[in-house]
Amino acid sequence: MLSPSITVLILLALTFLTTVFNAAVWLRATELSHRFSYREHDYDYGEMAPVQVPRTFGFTTMAIQNIDGTYPLTDDKKWASIVPPKGGFIRLGPVGAPFSIALYHQLHCVNGIRFAYVAARDGLFKHAKDREAAFQHVNHCFDVLRQSLLCKADTTLIPLGPDKQHTRRCRDWTQIRAFVDDNHQFWGDTPLQLPSNRSGQA
Predict the structure, then answer these.
(1) Cβ distance 88 to 106 under 8 Å?
(2) pLDDT tens for residues 31-50?
(3) Which of 21, 90, 137, 144 is most buried by a 10 A CB count?
(4) In whole angstroms, what separates CA 148 from the centre of its chain?
(5) Residue 113, C-beta contacts closer than 8 angstroms, at least 6 positions apart
(6) Percent with pLDDT over 70 in the chain
(7) Where are the transmembrane segments (predicted)?
(8) CA distance 70 to 66
(9) In 10 A of CB 72, how many CB atoms?
(10) 3-state DSSP: the chain helix, strand, coil percent, rounded to 5?
(11) What are the phi and psi torsion angles at 158 (to 5°)?
(12) Contact at 8 Å (CB) between 57 and 176?
């Protein structure tokens, strides 16, 4: 027969292991419910529409470098890859109301500014109206980026000096991209139609 103190220790160990197991099962079930539920499709467009993507995204660390070189100004294909197919637009709610995710609108704008800069620098605008249309879009994009930067008001300290690198805690953009890809897969080839009260300007 086991002594009372050993019996208590065994019971405590079993209770602890059961608690850890239940917590692991609960965490996995929560993860799967977020991943496979269509919670983002359960409201009507309009007043009840969310202001954020109805999903929680984790964080990661990112090394920020002064001179990266990963995205050369003239590499149109590489720059086009930063925005998902369909411009990063997603559909939410039971009827698939269209939304633009701010991240992809901002990246679209960075790419638009880059394109206009390269085209103007290299004399690629053959007609003044093309240049004016591009610059009108660039003006819109500068304003979008200005407002976005002020909204985030990032206070990360950046070390001074040539080729300095610093690490920053960032929202994991790969999870956001996976969400957009899953959303596109869910809605398939259903056409994305903007409501008539939206301009649709990207």
Answers:
(1) no
(2) 544 443 445 555 555 556 77
(3) 90
(4) 14
(5) 138, 141, 142, 145
(6) 74
(7) none
(8) 12
(9) 11
(10) 50, 10, 35
(11) -110, 120
(12) yes
